[in-house]
Each structure stands twice: as structure tokens, then as C-alpha cells.
Amino acid sequence: MINYKQFHYFWAVAKAGSIVKASRQLHLTPQTISGQIAILEASLGVSLFRKVGRGIELTETGELALTYADDIFQTGNALEETLRAGSKERSRLFRVGISDAVPKSIAYRLLAPAMSLAEPIKIICREGKLESLLGELAIHRLDLVLSDRPMPSEIDIKGRSQQLLECGVSFFAVSGLVQSSALVFPQHLSNTPLLVPGEDSAVRKRLMSWLNTLRMQPQIVGEFDDSALMRAFGQAGVGIFCAPSIIADEVIAQHNVIKIGETDQVTERFYAISVERRANHPAVVAVNMTSSKIS
């Protein structure tokens, strides 16, 4: 079994960049730290650092070990903070991961029920790729993940995916981009610059299938993982873009664009993903039970 005190010394040196800097932070002598790391390397049968000039750098094995050390000690710090907090403070924390494919205003609408609980909560939001957020959920560093897709079946996490919302999509553009008002939607989309969600977005496949069925051939001039960035390019006149119809008025007002059409043949879906140990969290229950009423 790894000696975690020695492993902590390794982590401190790797983060500080030198044994001397780490020794100052840990209030130990450099000789003590280097000696303990040498014992750790001998017990594992690997080299974690190599000498480079007067300094040291991580070996390939050391780089790998550092990723695990980050998870171990960051989780340990979070555990210490949680245990030191009173029971009331622990119950108030609601840690949410939001996939970057979920529009910010949709995320707020989905989470709003949790903000209206009788017992006020403190919400902590993290944004990122779904796979990374699910990893955080699996080790209980998040209570809930909002995504545009359910949990992938190939991910070995015992969790629950609940669809909270489904709506059609609307298409928007700056007024000068759509040349003929005589065209009937969706004819506007043919041979016109179009901005589309990135390949990681669940709606991307449904959108492209719909366009193919209509035999529309837009000029795809941009792909975006972040919906807010796609709308910014659309506002600049780069191309037509789509967004959930439920936030159409907001998109028009915020980006000074016009809506050129909408369809329910392409839908956006949003899910709350949770694990068993967090299923009874009051905020998780509130989101799962009432978000279907969003309009």
C-alpha cells in the first residue's frame, strides 16, 4: 500500500516545482522530503522525478502519478471542509455540473426550483465537458449534472438520468443576412451560411438529419461546442444559428436578431443526472420533480 505521507510530499514537490520550495511550504528540510520521496520511489519500483540541470522534472510515470495525486488530495481537502462545516452548512451546499452544451438561461430555469426551497441553499456551479463532469459526479464532488443527453450507457456509473425539458428549435439571423422575405421557412436555410452545434452536442445529429430530409444544403461556416459562442458569431452576422424555442424571445432581445422560423421536427432535450447517494438531496429532488413544469 502507498505511504500517503510520502505521496503527499511527492505531490507538494510536483506542484511547487522544486524540493526547496516544497520544503518551505511544508516546514521540513529538503533532505527529509528528498529522502521520503526516494523511499516512495523504491517501494513502487519507479522514478517519479529526473534531474534536469540543477532542477528536477516529472518523469512520464510521475506525470501519471500527479493526476491521481491531484484527485486524491483535492478530494481530501473537500472532505475536510465538509466535515468541518456544521450539518446545516453541509445541507445547504448544492454542487451542480453544467455541460457546456446547455444554454446558460436554460440551466437557470432548470435549477430555479432548487433556489425556491424553504431552506435556502448555496449553489456551486461548474461548467465543462459531460465526461469530465460525470467523473466528478461519480466521486461525489457534484450532486447533479445538467446535460443535453442522458448518461452514456458505456460509462460505468450507477446513476439516474431524468429528462427535464424538451422543446423545438428556432432559427435566428441578423436582418441583413436573410435577403428575401418572400421565402417560406425553411427555404431560408438553403445555400445560406449556417452555424451549427459541435459534434459533441446531442442536437447536432437531429439537426443534420432534418436538413438532409428536406434536401437543404446550407453552407456550414462554423461549429461550436459552446452555444453562447455560437450565438455571438450569429449576432456578428457570420451565419444563421439555432437555439431552443423556449428562449426565443430572450435570444432576439439579447442579440438583436430576428427569428426566421422554428420547427418541432428537431428538438433539444435536457437532463438531470444524479447518483444514488445524492438522490435524496433536497435540491436534487426539487429539480427532478418540478422542472417538467417549465414553460
TrEMBL record:
PANTHER family on file: TRANSCRIPTIONAL ACTIVATOR PROTEIN NHAR (PTHR30293:SF2), TRANSCRIPTIONAL REGULATORY PROTEIN NAC-RELATED (PTHR30293)
GO molecular function terms noted in the UniProt entry: DNA binding; DNA-binding transcription factor activity
Sequence similarity: Belongs to the LysR transcriptional regulatory family.
PROSITE patterns: HTH_LYSR
Protein name: Transcriptional activator NhaR
Domain HTH lysR-type, first and last residues per copy: 2-59
Taxonomic lineage: Bacteria, Pseudomonadati, Pseudomonadota, Betaproteobacteria, Nitrosomonadales
Highest rank taxon of the organism: Bacteria
Keyword Iron-sulfur: no
Record keywords: Activator, DNA-binding, Transcription, Transcription regulation
InterPro entries according to UniProt: LysR_HTH_N, LysR_subst-bd, WH-like_DNA-bd_sf, WH_DNA-bd_sf
A single BP term in Gene Ontology: regulation of DNA-templated transcription initiation
